[in-house]
Specification:
Structural class: alpha+beta
Number of strands: 18
Mean pLDDT: 92
Low-confidence stretches: 1-27
Strand order of the largest sheet: 5-6-7-8-9-11-10
Number of helices: 10
Strand content: 15-25%
Order of helices and strands: EEEEEEEHEEHEEEEEEEHHEEHHHHHH
Length: 485
């Protein structure tokens, strides 16, 4: 048997595990507590294979109450059975805007911290090293797999989406249901792999990247609370397009309470308090040049809009959002990135909990329209789809590439066989660990209509049957309609 070396110091636990002649570094610095809520029979032992397992995440908040922000100090311990596979100090907070207000099961964001409560990178199980992670609550997704499924398929087609792992969560000793441990979207060689930039990089080529932008609600990025926080934008958060959702020049000043026709590009990396004035100007000029080329119908591969964007990433982003019929697609939770000396790439995709027929708004119940036509049905919404997509779809070359890509994917990753196989692999993992039954014992929501639910199944299997039937119909509809674009 391999040896487990554990050195106990007065206030620090440092665990180092020797396994297969390699030292697996736990290096987990945790403030000791004799009053935490962790299992007392747990022990450290090396585990190398984390696939098809649903670990248990124990979080002890040391008497602190979790709030939206700032993060409060806590300790996390992750186990597979009685085996401890990870332990660390963390800072934890609630996350989410609409979901936080509407659903009882809350999502959390947490940051790994060292013994003196400073942010630190570490590898949680088989996740690459980083400091920021999310515990996502399925909440109103009673199939439990909508987000994990689309992220899985995105990675299969070669478009990075965050890594995920199903977990059972215990918070201060109380079981809180099934969650998804996932990466936060960040610049990193193992996440959004773009160049690191500092606010002193104000000359070419450094000035050209990397950057991450998003189109989203402003909640969580301003100091407001409640619904009022969703649509108030400032120059610290980002910048506004010069054009409305139809491509017409806006003739009033930006910022303040958002109007539906406006589109704001928010600074995700670097954040608004870390990005320089020159970098802001570079991004605004670059986006403006791209939009101008679209508006004058300059479709030339070398001189027109394609010189500003990675067309394939836009096509894959469209396919993923249309396949899932994501009502937030294009207009919310929409990320894009630009590497140094590179073009704008769409992605990573994010937040599909209302996708796959989980939206009861009348225009979306049948899954028989294009989601890029959202504005035609809900033109009074505060977040409309920007004009980019209609203009791109007016370019015959873009449409031909879209059709070609769809045909390739339909014969491979988006085939019924592969999609059903992917779904079943997720279900098998959950069933092997009894995670489904435990979750619905904690959250008695089966057979009950939650906000946005269109279909309400009495059992989890009914929810999965609905999901698979819905997907089959959507694929058939897209096969027929995509040739008409």
């Amino acid at each position: 048997m391999k040896k487990l070396h554990c050195i106990l110091l007065p206030f620090i636990i440092i665990a180092t595990i020797a396994c297969n002649k390699k030292e697996i570094s736990a290096q987990i610095n945790v403030t000791n507590s004799s009053t935490d809520s962790f299992p007392r029979n747990a022990f450290w032992y090396p585990i190398n294979n984390f696939s098809n397992k649903v670990p248990t995440v124990y979080i002890h908040t040391k008497g602190n109450s979790i709030v939206n922000e700032p993060k409060v100090q806590a300790i996390v311990q992750i186990q597979i059975g009685d085996t401890i596979v990870f332990k660390s100090n963390i800072g934890i907070e609630y996350r989410g805007s609409t979901s936080f207000r509407l659903f009882d099961q809350k999502s959390y964001g947490f940051e790994l911290r060292d013994a003196i409560n400073q942010s630190t990178d570490s590898a949680i199980m088989d996740f690459p090293k980083q400091s920021d992670f999310i515990l996502y609550a399925p909440a109103n997704d009673k199939a439990l797999i909508r987000n994990t499924l689309i992220y899985d398929l995105s990675n299969q087609i070669g478009m990075y989406a965050v890594r995920t792992k199903y977990v059972q969560l215990y918070l201060n000793g109380k079981y809180d249901g099934l969650y998804v441990l996932m990466e936060k979207i960040k610049r990193d060689k193992n996440r959004v792999n773009i160049a690191k930039i500092s606010n002193t990089d104000n000359n070419n080529p450094e000035l050209t990247g990397g950057y991450i932008l998003k189109i989203d609600k402003s909640a969580g990025d301003n100091s407001l609370t409640g619904w009022d926080a969703d649509a108030v934008y400032t120059s610290l958060l980002g910048f506004r397009s010069n054009y409305d959702n139809k491509g017409k020049k806006l003739n009033y000043l930006p910022y303040g309470q958002k109007r539906g026709e406006e589109t704001y590009f928010m600074y995700e990396y670097p954040k608004g308090n870390a990005i320089s004035t020159d970098q802001k100007k570079y991004l605004q000029d670059y986006l403006n040049d791209f939009e101008n080329s679209l508006l004058i119908n300059d479709f030339n591969q070398f001189t027109g809009y394609p010189k500003y964007i990675d067309v394939k990433s836009f096509i894959d982003y469209l396919i993923l959002n249309e396949f899932a019929y994501n009502p937030d697609g294009y207009r919310l939770s929409t990320f894009m990135n630009k590497d140094r000396m590179g073009k704008i790439n769409m992605g990573p995709i994010w937040d599909f909990n209302l996708g796959f027929g989980n939206d009861d708004r009348s225009a979306f119940t049948k899954g028989s329209t294009w989601m890029f036509e959202f504005n035609n049905y809900y033109g009074g919404d505060t977040w409309l789809i920007h004009f980019w997509w209609n203009k791109l779809l007016s370019d015959p070359n873009f449409v031909n590439q879209l059709k070609s890509r769809w045909a390739i994917l339909r014969s491979s990753i988006f085939s019924e066989a592969n999609i059903n196989k992917t779904i079943q692999s997720h279900i098998n993992t959950l069933q092997m660990n009894n995670s489904i039954n435990l979750h619905f014992e904690r959250w008695k929501i089966l057979g009950k209509k939650l906000p946005f639910n269109y279909f309400v199944g009495k059992t989890h299997q009914e929810e999965i049957d609905y999901l698979q039937t819905w997907i089959q119909k959507r694929l058939n509809w897209m096969d027929k309609e995509i040739v008409r674009l």
